[in-house]
Amino acid sequence: MLDKINTKDIVAIAKEAGDAIMQIYSQDFEVEYKKDNSPLTLDDKKANDIIENRLNQLSVNLPILSEEGVNIPFHERKKWEYFWLVGPSDGTKEFIKKNGEFTVNIALINKDISVLGVVYAPALDTCYWAKKGDGAFKNGKSLPITEEREVYRIVVSRSHMSDETRLFVADIATSKKKELVSIGSSLKICLVAEGKADIYPRLGPTMEWDTGAAHAIVNESNASLVKYTPDGDSQQHKYNKSNLLNSSFVVTGAQ
Fold it and tell me: DSSP labels for 47-84?
């Protein structure tokens, strides 16, 4: 199945959705709120429609699981061998703040593993992509990018910094000076995959569509994304669970 999908097609779909988002971003827009009190803007809906329509036009016909799509029961989803996992606009709080740190996320999942991912930040004109066995890229440049630095760079969420994360950062053992980098959306994961940061601890709630695309980029850049457990026992971060809420996780760069 994977060899039937051209990553360039998925990049083009993400960029088309990104263009639509930017049309809304450049104007005044209204903010709605979901039942969980998380914000929702028109860009989520518009980007989702574009992505789903374009994915359905591909030569391969695969089911789609999207943040803004139809709620599909687990007894149906668990039968899927391959499916698209879509976060049409990740970083809604950053979108509302107009700081540019929001992304379009499209992943291909094989059973419970991410095997292809595209993360596009339209306001920054930055695109990451990866396909299992083909490597990871940022705007066409192979990842990871080797970077010598005298600081140990730790990525933290701009909008979701927790006390538990602060304790985690304080406990990191390194001879280098620690430097915190705050950024929104799945760009946090991509910074580590790229090689511009050393670690990203996410000790709080996220959903599968928030991480699926970037996880493929992590895998192909020789970085690591694993479940976080206080005892340090690394466990695989899986997809298409009965509950689509992610466990806490830690992303570490290529060693």
Answer: HHHHHHHHHHTSSS---EEETTS----HHHHTT-SEEE
Q: What is the CATH number for 24?
A: 3.30.540.10
Residue 118 has pLDDT above 70, yes or no: yes
Q: Is the pLDDT of residue 39 over 70?
A: no
The secondary structure of residue 112, as a DSSP letter, is T
**Where is pLDDT greater, at 123 or 229?**
123
| Token code pair at residue 103 | 């992304």
pLDDT of res. 29: 61
Q: Are residues 111 and 156 in the same domain?
A: no
Order of all β-strands in the sheet with 141-143 = 64-66, 82-90, 103-110, 113-121, 126-131, 135-138, 141-143
Domain boundary among 140, 174, 201: 140
Residue 125 region by backbone torsions, left for phi larger than 0, else alpha for psi between -120 and 50, else beta: left
Quote the mean pLDDT of the chain: 91
- Domain end among 87, 108, 140: 140
Euclidean distance between CA atoms 208 and 191, whole angstroms: 19
Instruction: Tell whether 219 and 245 lie within a shared domain.
Output: yes
Q: Is the pLDDT of residue 30 over 80?
A: no
pLDDT surpassing 70 at residue 6: yes
The amino acid present at 55, given as its one-letter code, is L
Alpha-carbon distance of 106 to 225, in angstroms, equals: 17
Burial environment of residue 197 by CB neighbours within 10 A (0 to 12, 13 to 18, 19 or more): buried
The answer on pLDDT for 231 being more than 90 is no
Q: Do 248 and 168 reside in the same domain of the chain?
A: yes
Which regions of 64-203 does DSSP assign to beta strands (E)?
A: 64-66, 82-90, 103-110, 113-121, 126-131, 135-138, 141-143, 151-157, 177-183, 199-202
